[in-house]
Design a protein that fits this description.
529 residues, alpha/beta, five-stranded mixed β-sheet, elongated, binds adenosine-5'-diphosphate, binds magnesium ion
Length: 529
């Protein structure tokens, strides 16, 4: 079939008077650096010369391999592949292009340069996606941040793999065209048969609470631990649970998701972007509504925990962003692994160094860690005798460095539960009641930090601490005594104030009173010698 010639050729220009066969086509695509996108222009030039295709503009090997995929996909979709010299330029040239997502824009560029499709529908549109040899378009990671960037830059339409359309459609105002294969995309771009834009309705009521694996009401006794976890959830504070085996540390930590506050829509999108890049979004529910709870095993690799790899993927600490990172059996993680947590715990982001420069991922997680007090597990237990020597106990505890412990606001002992408590029929307070209190305290914080990037008391820096954590004379003298007795660092001092702020918020008190401060101090670790 002969197609009508396009009247508009703004994107395809013939150089004046040159060799009649030369063409330049431009297609817009997107690169990701960490969580941020950058617009990439894919230019395809055809000229006479030795047939072949070269890709320039700092492509990595996966982009180089595009050549083979694109050629096969174009031929197998029934199009003609030019017997010419093709030059593909990915601009800007100083930005490294990674991964297979440029297949689709390169293929569209070639079809455009060879006048097999028309430019009208290519203009002001974003193209991303990996091609199979048969021309079908495959799932590609990172679609959500790319769609967000396109929308910010005023691009009207995004052509994305059909599988990833629900994800792109989370961005309001962007027209999302789901692409299953190259030939149906081409008929759409030729204006012969349009593909329906994808529509995904994000109803606000969609965030129903899931059935939680464990409810706090099923945990017997341990009331002081539940209280500490409630405070932690209310203000986003880090927790270390220490106690003998079988005391319920893992059980308590795993009940945490049931009392975490709801995420705002903005937070949902933030978390979803990270999961999009990691390729971990469930296809049928593209928006992550619930705060993540990540519990990596202690054998996890360095890159698995902090992120990295050839195409940098977020690690567990970023997957736990706005949620919980649970490190069970903390000392087993090893010194080196734990030390890398120090920067993200302080800055709420993680910086990954690579040959091509550094990049950052968000990592604002709440750390919940659990450990036994000694190698045998029974140090300090009133019933079972500890078989470790004092030096063994000390060596074991020193596997967690002082600077790391300093960044944990709440240190809490989880003693064994007595038989009577464990066997009593009465259920404890339900998680939903605890969560209601947590939500109330968060609401106070939301109003406090309105218009800033801060979300909860745990995010406060020294300036906010000075502004919101004022204490009276009685409080000051209590803190002074505590600082001496517990040999607290300046950081610990600030952390106590933040924690006291949360406790006051939970109590609905505008001012930090002495009892709030006293409870916060009580969560500091005792001195270790
Ligand atoms: N306080 C508790 N209330 C109810 N069951 C408990 C409690 N503590 C422990 N258990 C039971 O013991 C099991 C082991 O607890 P776990 O949380 O794994 O202990 P730990 O991590 O401290 O070694 C739990 O799965 C649960 O069945
Ligand atoms: Mg355990």
């Amino acid at each position: 079939m002969r197609l009508p010639k396009s009247p508009q050729t703004s994107e395809v220009s013939k150089p004046p008077g040159g060799d009649g066969g030369a063409m330049l086509a431009r297609v817009t695509s997107c690169a990701l650096i960490g969580l941020d996108g950058a617009i990439v222009e894919v230019e395809v030039d055809t000229s006479r010369g030795l047939p072949g295709i070269i890709i320039v503009g700092l492509p990595d090997t996966a982009v180089q391999e595009s050549r083979e995929r694109v050629r096969a996909a174009i031929k197998n979709s029934g199009f003609f592949y030019p017997d010419k010299r093709l030059t593909v330029n990915l601009a800007p040239a100083d930005l490294r292009k990674e991964g297979p997502a440029y297949d689709l824009p390169i293929a569209v560029g070639i079809l455009l340069a060879t006048e097999q499709i028309w430019p009208q529908r290519v203009e002001n549109a974003l193209f991303v996606g990996e091609l199979s040899l048969d021309g079908s378009v495959r799932h590609t990671t990172g679609i959500l941040p790319m769609a967000a960037l396109a929308n910010e830059r005023g691009i009207r339409t995004a052509f994305v793999p059909a599988e990833d359309a629900p994800e792109a459609a989370l961005i309001h105002g962007l027209e999302v065209i789901p692409v299953t294969d190259l030939s149906s995309l081409a008929t759409h771009l030729q204006g012969l048969h349009s593909i329906e834009p994808y529509r995904y309705d994000l109803e606000p009521g969609a965030a129903k609470s899931p059935p939680y694996a464990v409810d706090f009401s099923h945990v017997k006794g341990q009331e002081h631990v539940k209280r500490a976890l409630e405070v932690a959830a209310a203000g986003g504070h880090n927790v270390l649970l220490t106690g003998p085996p079988g005391a319920g540390k893992t059980l308590l930590a795993r009940s945490m998701p049931s009392i975490l506050p709801q995420m705002t829509t903005e937070e949902c999108l933030e978390v979803t972007k990270i999961y999009s890049i990691a390729g971990l979004l469930p296809p049928e529910t593209p928006l992550i509504h619930h705060r993540p709870f990540r519990a990596p095993h202690h054998t996890i690799s360095h890159a698995g925990l902090v992120g990295g790899g050839q195409w940098p993927r977020p690690g567990e600490i970023s997957l736990g962003h706005r949620g919980v990172l649970f490190l069970d059996e903390l000392p087993e993680f090893g010194m080196r692994t734990l030390e890398v947590l120090r920067q993200p715990l302080e800055d709420k982001i993680v910086t990954i160094s690579r040959a091509q420069g550094t990049l950052t991922f968000p990592a604002n997680f709440m750390l919940i860690a659990a450990m036994n007090p000694c190698p045998c597990g029974y140090f300090g237990d009133p019933v079972k005798e500890c078989t470790c020597s004092l030096s063994m106990v000390s060596r074991y505890q020193k596997r967690i460095s002082g600077p790391l412990l300093d960044r944990i606001d709440i240190h809490i002992d989880v003693p064994r539960v007595e038989y009577d408590k464990l066997t009593e029929d009465r259920l404890g307070e339900k998680s939903e009641h605890i969560r209601a209190r947590v939500e109330r305290a968060r609401e106070v914080q939301r109003r406090r930090f309105e218009g800033t990037v801060l979300r909860c008391n745990g995010d406060m820096g020294p300036a906010e601490i000075r502004e919101y954590c004022g204490i009276d004379d009685a409080g000051r003298s209590l803190l002074k005594a505590a600082m001496q007795q517990l040999s607290m660092s300046a950081r610990a001092f600030h952390r106590v104030l933040k924690l006291a702020r949360t406790i006051a918020d939970l109590a609905g008190s505008e001012r930090i009173e002495t009892p709030h401060l006293a409870e916060a101090i009580q969560y500091r670790p005792r001195r270790r010698d």
